Fold:
Amino acid sequence: MKAYSKEKVLREITPLSDKDFFYIADRSKSEFTYPIHSHADYELNFTENAKGVKRIVGDSVEVIGDYDLTLVCSKDLEHVLEQNECRSDRVREITIQFSPDIFEKNFVNKSQFDSIRKMLERGQRGIAFPMSAILKIYPILNDLSYEQDSFYAVMKFFTILYELSRCEGARSLSSSPFARVETHSDSRRIQMIQQYINQNYKQDIRLGVVSQMAGMSPVAFSRFFKTRTGKSLSEYIIDVRLGYAANLLIDTNNTVADICYDCGFNNLSNFNRIFKKKKNCSPKEFRENFRRKKKII
Structure:
């Protein structure tokens, strides 16, 4: 087994500014492609219908059930949701990111916020909440996703934090805020090839090159790779490129054409066709649909 190298951990820049209270995104999805990452802002993340997904928080690795709710409150705590054995095409994910700065010292130290303050401190190692807590806050979380009045949105947000801070059965996840997850593969050769693809997805990746890296003939490597990953090499490369493209569509204002070529596709019409086949919508529709479901308060 080996730990994720720091080079493989994405340092995410969240969309919050100094004037924002929090950011919320409510999205439907059928796959998890965002890479392992960390960020300075705190994050509360809820998933529904995601049974079989692998949740990694620091050195904690767990396969989640139909519902999952976690809190991460450390800029150094890497985390990710990996597809793993999840086959659902109707996953709902609600992510709330908020800056530690909203809890100024004189504010959070008021006695009314004692339980929230303690929870945020404990969240330095990541927290997983029990089903009883999820059921209690779910109606509020659902309402918050659609709330148009920013004042009431903030009140609902604080209510969620307060209810979670008082629940019983919440579990700390990582052994420390700085722990590194260890990953394993049943084949060091597969792990090496996957790392190569992640580092070179913008380039033309040839079967002959990667099979030579693995010390196998192209035919033998193709069978080997499909057996171990469930995908052909070309399918795997396309999925990696689409994952990066989806993230750029969400997190940047780059044109679809720029994103197409930045992610290793060499033909815009081909990119649009593949994207629509995999995501059931065009890149432009994907961006518009996602942005209709996220708000900054």
Remarks:
- The CA atoms of residues 140 and 156 lie 6 Å apart.
- The longest helix spans residues 233-251.
- The chain is about 40% helix and 20% strand.
- The radius of gyration is 20 Å.
